[in-house]
């Protein structure tokens, strides 16, 4: 998992979410999704994400994920993210 390379946001939470999404969407789309939906949900970049932001980010990601992976798989992915981050 990246923790400071060229593909990293410099934020462990954002990078971990992007890495989980990458399993389903590919690495580029996973990173772009985290960036896009952090901006949409909070008006700030993924490098600022905190654990408290994760539930709202998951809500923002949900419609896109449902479209790409289906309703059931979407919920599994979001649960995996929450579990991996200790939420």
What structural keywords apply?
disordered N terminus, mainly alpha
Order of helices and strands: HHHH
Oligomeric state of the chains in view: single chain
Overall pLDDT, averaged? 90
Outline type = globular
Distance between the termini: 19 Å
Query: How much β-strand is present in the residues?
Result: under 5%
As a whole number of angstroms, the C-alpha radius of gyration is 12 Å
Count of alpha/pi helices: 4
Helix content: 55-70%
Largest sheet: none
Question: Care to describe what's here?
Answer:
There is one protein chain. With 87 residues, this protein is mainly α. Helices cover 69% and strands 0% of the residues. It is built from four helices and no strands. It is globular. The protein starts with 11 loop residues before the first helix and ends with a helix. Residues 1-6 have low confidence and may be disordered.
Short description:
The protein is 69% helix and 0% strand. It is mainly alpha-helical.
What is this structure's SSE topology?
Layout: H1 12-25, H2 27-42, H3 54-69, H4 71-84
Helix pairs in contact: 1-2, 1-4, 2-3, 3-4
């Amino acid at each position: 998992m990246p923790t400071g390379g060229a593909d990293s946001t410099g934020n462990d939470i954002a990078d971990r979410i992007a890495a989980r999404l990458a399993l389903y969407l590919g690495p580029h789309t996973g990173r772009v999704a985290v960036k896009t939906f952090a901006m949409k949900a909070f008006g700030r970049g993924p490098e600022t994400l905190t654990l408290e932001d994760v539930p709202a980010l998951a809500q923002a990601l949900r419609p896109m994920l449902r479209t790409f992976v289906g309703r059931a798989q979407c919920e599994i992915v979001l649960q995996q993210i929450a579990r991996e981050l200790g939420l």
